[in-house]
Design brief:
Layout: H1 3-8, E1 11-12, H2 18-31, E2 36-46, E3 49-54, E4 76-81, E5 87-90, E6 100-101
Antiparallel strand pairs: 1-6, 2-3, 2-4, 4-5
Length: 102
Amino acid sequence: MRVCARRFGGRLASIHSAGTNAALQLQARLNTKSGFVWIGAVTKPWRRTVQCHWVDRSPWDFHNWQLRHPLCTGRFCTTLCTADGRWRSQGCKVKLPFICEC
């Protein structure tokens, strides 16, 4: 994920509306054969619940989690599914395409 900063001077995308989520889903589906792409959400357990934040520290004002997500068993990064636009928790070291914003 550091490639966003190193190569493009940006960071993983934060998503703040259903419209932006749908637009990024469509772009990801058109530009990659992967079923999932990284977005800039990170989750971690906190007092029997899950704490979510964007890597750019913007407000957490929208989410589109798949049923039974986010996972609350550890720290996870987040993928956007190119088929349905839902978000899923994923181990942060998995190699996937990503959406970078500048």
